[in-house]
Amino acid sequence: MSRDTVLRKSVQLASLALVGLWLALLAGLLGRWAWPLDLFAHFRVQYAALFAVLAVITLLLRHYVHASAALLGFAISVVPLFPYVSDQPVSAAIATPREETFRLVSFNVWFRNPDLVPTAQYIEQSQADAVVLLELTPPQAEQLAPLLPSYPYYHIEPSRMGAAVFTKWPVLEAESVPLAPGGAVAAKLKLDWRGAPVTVLGVHLNWPLGPRNSEFRNQELNELVRFSKAQPGPLIVAGDFNLTPWSGYFSKALEQSGLHDAARGFGLARSWPAQFAPAGIRIDHCLLSPQWRSVSTRVGPFLGSDHLPIVADLTLQQ
After folding, report:
1. How far apart are CA 284 and CA 205, in angstroms?
2. What local confidence, expressed as pLDDT, does residue 97 receive?
3. Boundaries of each Endonuclease/exonuclease/phosphatase domain copy (predicted)?
4. For the CA atoms of 211, 37, 260, 256, what is the dihedral angle to 10 degrees?
5. Which of 12, 135, 150, 286 qualifies as a FRET site for 213, CA 20 to 30 Å off?
6. DSSP letter at 281?
7. Are 183 and 216 in contact (CB under 8 A)?
């Protein structure tokens, strides 16, 4: 095969890859128009990396029109990532929190996880003030609760899309909160943290595959907005949202609810899938009412689930 033939085929492959990548990016940008398009919105980190690679390749091939298109795609992909990038090192290690810091751990334990002992050990060592667990089946709950002596207070919503919240602090209120008829049911726990009433809402939103599940997810987000606006005191909403910050539905819910993302400024660490980092996206979140300031947010270690736990250290603003 001649050098010219190799060069021509290389340009053709780069062109096809560039067109496919642009179509995926544009589909994500139009995600509010149809549920399949929204699925493409979640891979902005991967798009940015692939556009950068294509820009280098096409520059080496001296195909400058393609290189310009790749650089433009890179710029569009990377701009929404800036608020999440931080110069601070993100560590998965468990550090000792300061006395005035509220630590929250959120973890989708996975209903097929055969051994929750590592999860219990991690939670006990975390020194978390509250723990949100998702996909915790009744048999798993029976196994886990005795392994968490530091967390005697809890509320478990056992439905398929339910949640559980454990805490070491006295509980003022505990109830299940339906987010959509036939959809997810959140677990609400109001606890007394050093004399301050703090509400933690554990959520597991529907996986938006198919029109029915997507509609459930959108209804659940709307109810989260309504619920959050009605809470007068410090509020934390945490769990598996099954969508990333790059989705228009996520940004709209943040804007309307008045909540802010605890992860902003602390990196782009993935939370799912735990087993394959290149495809990793962040679908587990900790959202905060204006009374909270995020000190750090990071992911924890692999604990036998398809998710990684997230850890958020927070302070109440004076």
Report:
1. 10
2. 53
3. 105-307
4. -60
5. 286
6. B
7. yes
DSSP 15-57: HHHHHHHHHHHHHHHTGGG-HHHHHGGGGHHHHHHHHHHHHHH
Q: What percent of the chain is modeled with pLDDT above 70?
A: 93
Nearest to 228 by CA among 254, 265, 204: 254
| Calpha distance 184→134 (Å, rounded) | 11
- Where residue 269 falls among pLDDT bands split at 50, 70, 90? confident
With cut-offs at 50, 70 and 90, classify the pLDDT of residue 309: very high
Determine the pLDDT at residue 1.
Answer: 60
Q: What is the pLDDT of residue 295?
A: 95
At residue 164, φ and ψ (nearest 5 deg) are -135, 145
Residue 3 CA to residue 279 CA, distance in Å, equals: 34
Coil, helix or strand for 278?
helix
Contact 202, 239 (CB under 8 A): yes
Q: What is the helix (H) or strand (E) element at residue 286, kind and residue range?
A: strand 284-288
Phi and psi torsions of 186, nearest 5°:
-85, 160
Task: Give SS3 for 202.
Answer: strand
Q: Categorise residue 100: left if φ over 0, alpha if ψ from -120 to 50, beta otherwise.
A: alpha
Q: Rounded to 5 degrees, what are φ and ψ at 150?
A: -80, -5
Other C-beta atoms closer than 10 Å to the C-beta of 1 total 6
Answer whether 261's CB lies under 8 Å from 287's CB: yes
Phi, psi of 159 (to 5 degrees): -70, 170
pTM more than 0.85: yes
First to last CA, the chain: 71
- The residue with tokens 């520059």 is 59
Q: Which two tokens stand for residue 82?
A: 């800036």
**Closest by Cα among 294, 279, 303 to 120:** 303
Domains and CATH numbers, the chain: 3-84 (no CATH), 102-316 (3.60.10.10)
Neighbours of 196 (CB within 10 A): 13
User: In which band, very low, low, confident or very high, does the pLDDT at 4 lie, cut at 50, 70 and 90?
Assistant: low
